[in-house]
Design a protein that fits this description.
- The protein is α/β, with parallel strands linked by helices and about 280 residues long.
- About 25% of the residues lie in helices and about 30% in strands.
- The strands form 3 sheets. It has a 6-stranded mixed sheet with strand order 2-3-1-4-11-5, with helices on both faces. Strands 8-7-9-6-10 form a 5-stranded mixed sheet. A 4-stranded antiparallel sheet has the order 13-14-12-15.
- It starts with a strand and ends in a 6-residue tail after the last strand.
- Bound molecules: adenosine-5'-triphosphate (ATP) and magnesium ion.
- Magnesium ion binds next to loops.
Length: about 280
């Protein structure tokens, strides 16, 4: 019995999806150019699909689980479970208007025409804001709609904003934030659920390790209390005496976001020989 996972065939989520499976110890090296691949060392079969089709396939049980943008999950509105955010494919669904259009707030969109590939999400958003606008559904090249006179505004995915800028548009509203998510069907049998649980456990371990660094340092014993207060660690830091009298070695795990701040505080408290090591997996 194998668990079937659907991932994007090519496009923005493809590489990161394959990479995280690899970091979960799943070897797909023989099947990457095909539409389906079997892992050698884990009961997993991978189906490579268009991202828009993934929720439907997962709902129908053609695939048991998948990695897909949250935006697609909410737009397609299929009955599937979102189990975990993947930490990649981050973007936002935004409304943009032409650069020279005067825009104060969302009420300015009343009665306007908005081109989008996300009519469901945008429709709900406008309704929640009590703005009545006309949605023009397009499947691609949304950014050119205002300049060719198809619409007054657009609603599309943005990450850096450079595409909007290049098309003479400015971002005026964020409708939703999105990233890739791990989804599953709602009716997996016992055996598949067990494999899914194992896979999810590995994904969480890989994700957790990405945010954390292992820190090793030497500290004078009289500063140990201060240094331990700075270092949260998983439980508390590990402290080992060094051969040199009056000194100890301190090992801990720190959060990437607070990294520089913590390193500065450690130095100010007499820490020396600080080594920072990436963590490959983290099981807590
Ligand atoms: P497919 O051929 O699979 O239908 P696509 O062209 O519809 O691919 P991509 O452009 O590869 O889709 O985007 C896939 C997903 O990547 C999006 O649904 C979204 O979740 C995410 N994403 C992240 N950043 C961006 C961005 N700047 N623009 C578009 N999508 C983004
Ligand atoms: Mg698509």
């Amino acid at each position: 019995m194998k668990l079937k996972i659907a991932i994007q065939k090519s496009g923005r989520l493809y590489e990161d999806s394959v990479k995280i499976l690899k970091e979960c110890g799943i070897d797909l090296s023989n099947g990457l150019n095909k539409l389906r691949a079997e892992a050698f060392n884990f009961p997993l079969e991978v189906l490579f699909l268009r991202d828009d089709d993934i929720p439907q396939y997962v709902k129908d049980g053609v695939a048991d689980c998948g990695i897909v943008g949250e935006n697609i999950v909410y737009e397609t509105n299929k009955k599937i479970k979102v189990l975990e955010k993947m930490g990649f494919g981050k973007c936002r669904l935004s409304i943009a208007v032409q650069k020279n259009t005067e825009y104060k707030n969302i009420k300015d969109l009343k009665g306007k025409k908005i081109a989008t590939s996300y009519p469901v999400i945008l429709g709900k958003y406008l309704k929640s804001k009590r703005v009545d606008a006309k949605l023009e559904e397009v499947s691609g090249s949304v950014e050119i709609a205002p300049s060719v006179g198809l619409a007054d505004a657009i609603c599309d995915l943005v990450s850096s904003g450079s595409t909007l800028f290049a098309n003479g548009l400015k971002e005026v509203e964020t409708v939703m934030r999105s990233e890739a998510v791990f989804v599953s069907g709602t009716k997996l049998d016992k055996e598949k659920s067990a494999i899914l649980k194992k896979l999810l456990f590995r994904i969480k371990a890989v994700k957790k390790s990405r945010h954390n660094k292992y820190v090793l340092l030497n500290a004078p014993n009289e500063k140990l209390d201060a240094i331990c207060n700075i270092l949260p660690g998983m439980k508390s830091p590990t402290i080992l005496p060094l051969a040199e009298k009056g000194w100890s070695s301190v090992h801990s795990v720190i959060d990437e976001e607070k990294f520089w701040e913590i390193i500065e505080q450690l130095k100010d408290n007499g820490a020396q020989g600080i080594l920072v090591i990436p963590i490959e997996k983290m099981i807590v």
